[in-house]
Structure formats: C-alpha cells, structure tokens
Amino acid sequence: MATFAKPENALKRAEELINVGQKQSALQALHDLITSKRYRAWQKTLEKIMMKYVELCVDMRKGRFAKDGLIQYRIVCQQVNVSSLEEVIKHFMHLSTEKAEQARSQAQALEDALDVDDLEADQRPEDLMLSYVSGEKGKERSDRELVTPWFKFLWETYRTVLEILRNNSKLEALYAMTAHRAFQFCKQYKRTTEFRRLCEIIRNHLANLNKYRDQRDRPDLSAPESLQLYLDVRFEQLKIATELSLWQEAFRSIEDIHGLMCMVKKTPKPSLMVIYYAKLTEIFWVSDSHLYHAYAWFKLFTLQKSYNKNLTQKDLQLIASSVLLAALSVTPYDHTHGASHLDLENEKERNLKMAGLIGFSLDPKRDSREVLSRSALISELASKGVMTCVSQEVKDIYHLLEHESLQLDLASKVQPLFSKISKIGGKLTSASSVPEVQLSQYVPALEKLATLRILQQVSQVYQTMNIDMLSKMIPFSDFSAVEKISVDAAKYNFVAMKIDHSRSCIHFGNMDFESDRLRDHLTVLAESLSKVRGLIHPLTKKASKPDTYILGLADIVDKEHKRLLARKSIIEKRKEEHERQMLEMEREEESKRLKQQKITEEAEAKRLASEYTRREEQRIRREIEERELQEAQALLLETEKRGKKKGKRPIIEGEKLTKQSLIELHISEQLKERQEMEKKLQKLAKTMDYMERARREEEVALIADAYRLRLREEEILHEREQRREIELSRQHHAGDLEQKNRLARMWDNKGIFQNGIVQRREAEFRRLNEEREARINEVITARKQDRLKRRKLLFYLRSEEERLTRLREEEELRKREEEERRKKEEAEHRAKLDEIAAKQRQRERELEEKDRLRREALLARPSEPSRPVEPVARPPDSAPASGVYVPRFRRGDRTESPGSGPAAPPEPDRWGRRDDRRPSSNRPASDRWR
C-alpha cells in the first residue's frame, strides 16, 4: 500500500501511471488513498481525486472499487460538504450512462455497416460459420460482446448509488432522481427482471427506514418534501410496471403506495390519487376482479368531478359511462356459494385488503359482501348522480339488463346497442392522468350478462326448451360459450337447469340430478334381491315356543355383539399397525430421498463452483493477455506515428513485441525528447536575454525625453486647475454672502418660533414625567399589596400544614398506643389460655395415671396369695381413696409412714413421658371428672 504525504501527490502519481498505460496501478493507488484513515478531513483535492477515481472505475468497469470508494467518501463529507458527494455521484452516473450509450451505438454501427466485398451476398462467410457453430445472429453476438457488459455495469451503478443514498436525509432528491433513471433504464431496454429487483430494493430500503428509527441521518417521512419524493418514486414505479405489463409488480406497487399513505396518515395530492385509481382500474381488469375494477372507476369519477375544474362534459360523460358499464360487468351472483369455511375466511381477508386499497374502511366483524357488492354499487351510482351523466346508449343497456323482465327478445334489443358503444372511446382531453377509455372492452362482459338474464327469464317461462331455439335467442355467442356460462351459473345456484345432449334439449327447474338418484341405488337393489329370494325360496314356518326363541335370541345377540366388538378392535389395531408401517416407510423413503438429494446438490454445487472458478480464471487470463496486447499495439502505433512525423523509420521490425519492451522504448524516447527540448529551451532563453538587453539599451534615451515632456504638460495642467479653483471659490463666497443678507430679516421670527417649540416640548415633558411618576407609584402600591397578600397566604398555608402535621402525628401516636395495648392484651390472653391448657393437661395426666394404676391392680389381683389386707394409715389431710386399690409398692408415693424406706421411683409414662410430680393429697375424688 503506497503512502503519500499529500493527496496531490497521489493524484499526480495516478496521472503518471495513466499516461504510461497502467490504469490498474493508478486505480489501486487512488483506492489506497481514499480508504486510508489519514485523509478523513474533507478538502477540495479529495473531490478531484474522486472524480479521477470514478473515471478510472468506469473505464475499467470496476463496480466493486467504485462502491468502496463512494462509501468512504460519504463518510468523509457527510457532515461537512454533502454537495461534493452529490457532484461525484452525478459524474459517476453520467459516465456510466454515456459509456452504455456509446456501446449501444457502436453495436448498431457494426450491424449497419456494409463491409463485405460482394454486395449481392446475404451474409459474410465468417458470420455463416459463427451462426452454424453458436446458433447466434450477428446482432446478438455484438450485443453480447459490446452492449451487455456496459449495461451490466450501468445497472450495477444504479444499485450502488441507491445503496449509498438509502438513509441520507440530505440527498433525498438525488436518491429519487436515481430511482427514476433506473426505472427509465428498465423501461427503455425492457429489463423486466432488473425492474423486479429494483422494486424489491426500494421496498427493502423503506422497510429498513421504518425498522431502524434511531439512525443519525435517517430521512423523516413525516416531512411533506420527503413524503412527496417517496410517493413520486412509487408512482413512477407503478407507471413503469403497467407499461411493461408486470401486473403482479404493479399490484405490489399499489400496496407500497397504500402502506406509505397509511404510515404517514396523510392523503396525497388529487393528481396523484387520480393516477393511483387509474392504474388500479387496469390492474383489476387484467386480474378479472370486475367488482373492484368498478369501485376503482367510481373513485376515479368522484375525484375527477370534484377536483378537475377543466373537465369537459364529453369527458365526464365518457368516464361516467365507463363507471356504469364496469358495474354492469360484474356477475350478478355470489361466487362464494357452497364454499368451505376456509375459503370464506380467505375471501373475507381478501375483501378487507382490497377495500383498504380502494379507500373503504370496513368492519372486520361484519360481512364485507354486504358493503362491497354489485347491488350496493349500482344503488350508490344512482344516488350519487352518475346515471345523469352517462350517454343514452349506456342508459338503454342499463334499463334493458337490470329493470326489464320477461323479454325473450332481449338479445335482439341489446345487440345494436353493443355495436354502438364498441365505437365510443378515445383519449381524454382534460384528464391526462386517466388512461385511454375504450367502452369496447366491456362488450364481452355485457354479452355474458345478457346471456345470464336470458337464461334466467327463460327458466321462469319454460320448463323444457330446444337447444337450437336457445341458440337463436342468443345470436352473439355460440352454444359452447352459452353452455360454459350456464354451467357456471348453475354451479353458483343462479339458474337451475340441465342440458340433455342426447335429446338436444334443456330442462329448467329444481330437478334431481343423477347423483341424487344414485345415492340409494345399492339399498334399492338389496331390497329387490331380497324380495326375489323370498319368492324363489320361501321360508318354512316351524312351530316353536316363543320363550325358547326369546332366550336363544338374547344369547345370540350377546354373542354377536361381543364378536362384533372383538372384530372392531382387531380392525382398528390392524388399521393402526398399517398406518404406522406406512408412516415408517414414508419417513424412510423421505429421509433416503433427502439424503440423496443433498448428496446430489452438494456434488452439483461443487462441480458448478469448480467450473465457475475455472471459467473465471480463463476469462481473467484471456482479458489480461488481450488488454496487454491492445496496450502494446497502441504504444507501437503511437511510437510509429511519432517516428513518421520526425522522419524516422520504425524502431523495431520483425521482432515479437511485448508490453514491457514497448514501455521501455517509449520511456527512452520520452527522455531523449525531453533532453532535446531542454537544449532548445536553453538556447532560446539565451537569445531572448540578448534581445531584451539590446531593447532596453535603445529605450533609455526615449524614456528620458518622454519624462521631460510629461513634466512640462503636468505643470501647465496644474496652473490651469489652480486658476479654475480660485474662480469657483470667489463665486461661491459671493453667493453665500447674498444668501446671508437675504435670510437675515428672518432672525427674530426664527427665535420666536424656536422659543415656542422649546416651551411646548418642556410642558409635554413635564406632563409625561408626572404621568410616569403616577404609574410608578401605582405599581409600587400594587406590588406592596401583592406581597402582603402572598405573605398572609404563605403564613396561612404554613400554619395549616403544621396543624395537619400535628394532627397526623397525634393520630399515629394514638394508633401506635392502641396497637401496643392490643398486643399486650393478646399476650396476656394467650398466657392465660396457655396456663389453663397446662392445668388441663396436668389433670388429664393425673386421671390417666389413676386409671393405669387401677388397671394394674385389677390385673395383678388373681396372681397374689390371699392375705389379709392391712389398713393403710392416711394422713389426716389426705383425701379418701374412693375405693381404688393401690399396691404396696405404690403406697409410698401417696403416704410416707415414719420409719418406712425411701419411696420407689415413679414408673415411666405409657407415652414415653415421665411425671415426677406428686399427686395432690387433698384433691377430692370427684375432681377426676372435671
């Protein structure tokens, strides 16, 4: 990577390399300078470098280099001088367009040139050989070799510029201009694929603008200028799409325009809306959406009538006739009859979408067919006064097809009217945005409507009719078309009819179709065969007991029921097993197919990549060799021309020329010429020096004479000017004296007038001063009162705030004391409850202990030897034993007689607890029941 101290050095180096034919090196040097971080401050030299850089990129068709350089230059001058970027981009597009036009004109000149020897021959021999080998004509080959590369580069230029300017708010106009030029390029050369890509690119740019709203230089779509530019681009896109017959892309452009209008919540100008609805009419007509086509025409009619003040009566009549005929072209029956729920939901979504495009806001919960329908549109046309503007022929057609009934000669009446309206139409003079209106396009739809009306009226009159008779009643269509229309009408329940070709007749009315007759044919056949079998082999009646039959019948029914249930379960299992096997087989086959497809795709991708790499290498090598050969030939021609001008012979003859040898030869020739030129310049400088010295020596005497003559002339002139000035001063002095004497008599009046003015102004000044003092006093008094009121108010507010604070603190203190008191009471209550519970548990333990002792005494009584019971001494303060026997080893717990041994330890509680407390001796016997 080359480094330069100044950008000017890089520019000089690039020019030197260009002069010696090394454009690639010059381009690389400029690219290194532009992408370097050292030169990020904008200066005028960088603009010159960018101009030279884009010229080299265009000459060498280096689109990638151009894009990188423009991106770096945008970073440099985005915040400093964005107009410089605009100039560079315009220069870049101008060069690309110019090169493409030159290539196209060159290819055309090659095709038109007569460069054959035999003028009677149709083609040259080499053209014939190439056409047999490649299958291409001369023009196709020249286009592929000359025009196509430059057109590819021009298309890449447009894409690059749009990508660079997509989020630049300061260059929105340039972005719009580039988009318009790209659209015109696609239109001029019928590039439908590039047009679709261009529309997708612009659509993605707008989506990214809405997605990333925090960008620094993002365009503001709410601004009227930005919105107008974006809308102009979309409308141009819509025009080009319709001119190229890309109706799907045109519909997507309509959706883009509608989305942009909904995004900014602003309706565009009426002139743009006229174009919008005019293109909608074309799109809906091509897509056979006659109902929306009619609504679009109605919107167009409303706009033209409201905003177009120059609309003539003839144009208004033509537009109104188109609106009415478009409404009549809608089929009079609903196409959703008998449709599934999914189809109805899809149709509902489609209707909501289309209604939004044509400017109707529908309720999603309400059926849109009630709002957007043929009958609703015709009634609205009548209420809005469209019927009063249509021509007489269209009115007659409307009355015959809509209001007349039971007219079997309807076709003979409407056919002349169809012939008349087919000749009406043309370009509108006062509505240039509206396309050319031709009423003849509605004739096939009106003929279909007339056929439906005739079939509807005939079905009300006849039950059976001959096919030939019906064909005579509908002369403008053959019977195959009538049959197709009738099948469609019968499908959607508009007419009930059946065509019998075997008898050449038509049956009208609600009759059973063949499918209804065959619905129960197997049941009828089974019943008939059962009757025949009964006649051939009658059943013999046997005497049997009813009870036996009934019992056997119950067993049979039970067994048959069980057998059927078992068979059903077996069938279900077999079905599930079969389905599982089929699913496994399908999965295996699908996995095998995907694996094989993946292997095939990988192999094909590898082969294509290697083939593409090999072709690219060959192409690059071939281009390098051809370019070096061309440059060597150009250098040789230039050297030979220079040698012929100087009378020299060719320098190299009979040898194989190379680019390096010619460059060295060219450089040596330039050095020789430079040395010779320097010698000539030195000789010329010496000669000029001698001539200048001689000229100056001759001029010395002449200059002295001229100086003396000039001095004398200036002295004479000075004396003349002095005399003239003295005379003028005398005249002015005399005039001033005369003026003074004339005005002297006004001196007294002047003093009186001056005194009056001074006195009047003094009085006015005193009055104004007094008024000012009074106003100041009033203001001071008012401010004092305001300050007093404010102080009182502040004192009142502060006092009130202190009172409220004191009340709030007292309330909080009271609540806190109540809370503490409540907690204390709860703690005391809980303590009392715990004490009562403890006493209760103690009583229960005592009772349990007594019961246990009693049970043990009862159990131990039979095993002991009978012996007399000794009375036990009871303390005088103890309670009676209540007849409960206490063993001897337990008696020490209750009484302690003198001289007795120590008391035995208490037996552990049956629940694992020990009770070391002694029972109370003075408790009455009845306490255990408390």
Automatic annotation (TrEMBL):
InterPro entries for this protein: EIF3A, eIF3a_PCI_TPR-like, PCI_dom
Disordered as annotated region, ranges: 811-930
Biological process according to GO: formation of cytoplasmic translation initiation complex; translation reinitiation
Chief subcellular location: cytoplasm
Superkingdom of the organism of origin: Eukaryota
Swiss-Prot/TrEMBL keywords: Coiled coil, Cytoplasm, Initiation factor, Protein biosynthesis, RNA-binding
Compartment list: Cytoplasm
Bias kind Basic and acidic residues: ranges: 811-858, 907-930
Signal peptide, first to last residue: none
Domain PCI: 316-513
Cellular component terms (Gene Ontology): eukaryotic 43S preinitiation complex; eukaryotic 48S preinitiation complex; eukaryotic translation initiation factor 3 complex, eIF3e; eukaryotic translation initiation factor 3 complex, eIF3m; multi-eIF complex
Role played: RNA-binding component of the eukaryotic translation initiation factor 3 (eIF-3) complex, which is involved in protein synthesis of a specialized repertoire of mRNAs and, together with other initiation factors, stimulates binding of mRNA and methionyl-tRNAi to the 40S ribosome. The eIF-3 complex specifically targets and initiates translation of a subset of mRNAs involved in cell proliferation.
Homology family: Belongs to the eIF-3 subunit A family.
Name of the featured protein: Eukaryotic translation initiation factor 3 subunit A
